[in-house]
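User: Hi! I'm a student and our assignment asks us to look at how structure tokens line up with a sequence. Could you show me two examples?

Assistant: Happy to help. In each example below, the sequence comes first and the structure tokens follow. Example one:
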Amino acid sequence: MNSESQPLYLDYNATTPLDPRVFDAMQEWYVGPPANSGSRTHVYGQRARDAVEKARQQVADVLGARSEEVFFTSGATESNNLAILGLAAYGEQNGRKHILSTAIEHKAVLEPLDQLRRRGFEVELLPVTEGGYVEPDAVKEHLRADTLLVSVMHANNETGVLQPVSEIAELLDGTETLFHTDAAQTFGKEVEVLRNLSCDLLSISSHKIYGPQGVGALYVRRRGAARRPLAPLLFGGGQERALRPGTVPVPLVVGLGTAAELAAREHQARASAANRIKEELLSSLQSVDHHINGDLSRSQPHVLNVSFPGVDSEALMLALRDQIAISNGSACTSASYDPSHVLLAMGLDEDRISESVRISWGPGVESIPCDAIVSAVRGMWTSF
């Protein structure tokens, strides 16, 4: 949706544009007959319920899961809260109050973990390498008999660095420890990995895969006939099998289902196109001094976190604001001027952190105006 008067949007890790095909699927549910999937006594409710269950299956299919294992939420933040805080009673009842996570998690994981600390849980945040990933051995070394949960994101939102979730899942196989991964940045993108990932809980966001904002899902894997360990955080209805009450937003859920189906069908082509753009960007940056933040060999194809020595990120974004829209951290903390907790955890000094920007792209972006970035960086150097 860029025009000559608008900068090119390159902040896809914050939110993606809404796919017109997704909008088309949602539109009839906004302008058509009333649709409450909880109304079981008439054709309107049945029609809405069928649409919700179709979307649930579409999401499940991306994961190779069963539809009854998918619970709709308002987004990955709620899914993370439900996955973590929803285990509190189970952990207390079973004397399992130790949790492992990492220092680079999204605030939607770190802040619920802080809440559990206040309830007496012992939370350990594992360090990461300078490449921005946690070593599986670090998880193995800190596992205990009373470890309730290991929560490790699949890809970091600031650096795009993929975490070794498959190796961690193997470590936990056969144990009673539950494994949660925040897959907000990888659902519908790292499809094969997630289809083969043996995790217990997985958080999903719609607006990272060209779906609508305000909806997501939590995948809760069933372990045989064992009772689901999660308790609801909200009360007031039996929707989503009593785990997440409240009227299901049919248009949003339909949008998520459609976006999930499209992602599963197109993820390889999208990744290939993103890789081409990344190679062009990396090639162009060779003409100026820069540092890549995060291990490139582990990074997703559509994102790059880069620092330009001596160039303040805020000043650079201001210089480029008429041409491209980029960021210097998580959208959830962009109003804060505190150094990125992710880059700090990777061992970067505050100067390098203040010089870092995140560029992320996807379908709809054919190329990045690399010359504009290089020119802006050089112009800021010569102005010193």
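Example two works the same way, sequence first and then tokens:
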Amino acid sequence: MKHLFVNSLAGSAGGGVTYIRNVIPRLAAIPGLRLTVALPPGIGKELSAFPNVELLEMQMPALRRFWYEQSSLPAVIRRSRADVLLSTGNFALRNSPVPQILLSRNSIYTSTDFYRDLLARHEYATWMDTRLRGVLAKRSITWADVTVAPSEAFAAELRRWTGVEVRAIHHGFDRDAFTSDPGQLPSEIQEKLRCAAGTLKLLFVSHYNYYRNFETLLRALPILRKKLSGRRIKLFLTCKLVAGENPGTYNPAAAARLVKELAVSDLVVELGSVPYHRLHRLYSSADIYVTPAYTETFAHPLVEAMASGLPVVASDLAVHREICVDTAEYFPKFSSEALAEKVAGVARSSDGPKKIAAAGLERSRQFSWERHAEEIMRLSDDLIEPKTSQALARQPRRL
């Protein structure tokens, strides 16, 4: 039986949690595979039903976690007698005791826009911290036996950054699982949606952070209000522009001030975090999905929006075009005017949104977590095979 050790200690929020909750069950369904998964507390209860999965739950701060991974985790992997290590959190083990697959999925380390943004905000400590993490992320790609990126566009960026070959394996999506929960949204969110009845509902699904470029979206609102004069608009955010209300250390104060300065408080609805299993209800309540992100590696909400039948308006990134191809409308990533024009165009069109939504729904079906897990296992088999061949070669021949 093959044994895969999955290091997901960094998967505490956002895409990391999405990856764990979707990939581990698919890997667990592969015959002849045993899994040991290191992960933060709280996620394991979703994975405890699989008899071939051993969960190692542990909680620690980021800096302590990196030190633990480099100093102590190799011994844990060695004791588990795993054949291959899958590191899912951007950083590889310097001295992995087994062949290692690294999943690199954080584009801020390679984004000049992000570093420029931090300096403009006078976030010098975060700028230095990101630079240092970027050095480790770059080194990690050279430490791993194979590095995997969730899109070809980001894989190409990593190749340019490191000079090392990087494989692209799309993340997946399961529409049936995504829409399976029959429950309703929390009552306070339902009330906010009810109060917005009859408005053009724009949706942006993201915790607050700088690289999702909230400010460009907020600046588009007064422009859009003029372009759609006479039509009411609401922008729904799955975060709150209040310090301490979002994962991470990003400060939403500037965005909150911008809402007041632009006099668009009546257009912005801050929902806060929405339970993932109920998120499909929110998509189905919206009219247009919009994302102004200036850097991205895959963008699961785009696939979720397409699968929910929403027309998409997205910043013109290579990653966004790879995921949505011709099923979305695109605008220059820092142009609020162009963003507003694209949204207004979709809103004014009589049958355009339906055509875009139908094409997006079909496109969403191209992403599969089963296929992703199978590709990861093929890589694992390729790494195990040379070791097996060497072991057989060392065995004495029998006459």
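Here is something you could point out in your write-up. The chain has 16 helices and 13 strands.
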